[in-house]
């Protein structure tokens, strides 16, 4: 019986780095869940590998068929961008173990769809001051500079990942990422233990 390991946490906690390292760990043998999105493809991204890129009309058709498990939408300066998980037959936690990264609402929707015994939350946390400094350093790079968006995400995280909401979602275990190597080792051991349950 497989599990879906769900990486979540506030922005700039190192979720992407941890996700990539766990996915690359051959011993863990985790498969990724590829989300669908209506946002345009970016340079370096690969169709059906990074995301399944669809149009707004394609999204509406999938929704009309009742095939969306969970979804979220962001009103960006480029328009409304949707991200969603689809019942497309690509995920079977009875056969494989998976890893995905996302937000709290998405975790809850997937848990409700696949069952509490199939979803294992991996909540990453970092001191808020360190998170803010990391985000600032990232946005200082010439190719970034989206300081307004950085501030919006930082403030939204305070509400989206409040202790009350985390507790309500049934997330008890937290992994502090103040040392990447140690944090990754703790998560790896945790995944191995959970796969045996």
Structure, explained:
- This protein is an alpha/beta fold and 197 residues long.
- Helices cover 40% and strands 22% of the residues.
- It has seven helices and nine strands.
- The longest helix is centred in the C-terminal third of the chain and has 16 residues, at 180-195.
- It is globular, with a radius of gyration of 17 Å.
- How many strand elements? 9
Largest sheet: 5 strands, parallel
Rg result:
17 Å
Mean of pLDDT? 91
Overall morphology = globular
Compressed to H and E, one letter per element, the order equals EHEEEHEEEHEHHHEH
Main sheet strand line-up: 2-7-1-8-9
Distance between the termini: 9 Å
What level of helicity do the residues show?
25-40%
Question: Nutshell version of this structure?
Answer:
The chain has 197 residues and is an alpha/beta fold. It has 7 helices and 9 strands.
Question: What is the element layout, followed by pairings?
Answer:
Elements: E1 4-9, H1 15-24, E2 31-32, E3 36-37, E4 52-53, H2 56-64, E5 68-76, E6 79-86, E7 98-102, H3 104-114, E8 119-125, H4 128-139, H5 147-160, H6 163-168, E9 174-176, H7 180-195
Parallel strand pairs: 1-7, 1-8, 2-7, 3-4, 8-9
Antiparallel strand pairs: 3-6, 5-6
């Amino acid at each position: 019986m497989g599990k879906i390991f769900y990486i979540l946490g506030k922005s700039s906690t190192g979720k992407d780095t941890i996700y990539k390292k766990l996915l690359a760990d051959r011993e863990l043998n985790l498969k990724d869940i590829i989300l669908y999105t209506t946002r345009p493809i970016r340079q370096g991204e690969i169709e059906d590998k990074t995301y399944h890129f669809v149009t707004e009309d394609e999204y509406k058709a999938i929704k009309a068929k009742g095939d969306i498990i969970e979804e979220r939408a962001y009103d960006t300066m480029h328009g409304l961008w949707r991200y969603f998980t689809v019942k497309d037959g690509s995920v079977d936690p009875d056969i494989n173990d998976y890893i995905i990264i996302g937000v709290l609402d998405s975790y809850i929707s997937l848990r409700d769809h696949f069952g509490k015994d199939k979803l294992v939350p991996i909540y990453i946390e970092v001191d808020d001051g360190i998170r803010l400094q990391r985000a600032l350093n990232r946005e200082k790079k010439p190719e970034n500079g989206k300081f307004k968006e950085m501030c919006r995400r930082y403030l939204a995280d305070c509400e989206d990942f409040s202790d009350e909401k985390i507790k309500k979602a049934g997330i008890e275990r937290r992994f502090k990422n103040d040392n990447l190597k140690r944090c990754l080792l703790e998560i790896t051991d945790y995944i191995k233990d959970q796969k045996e349950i």
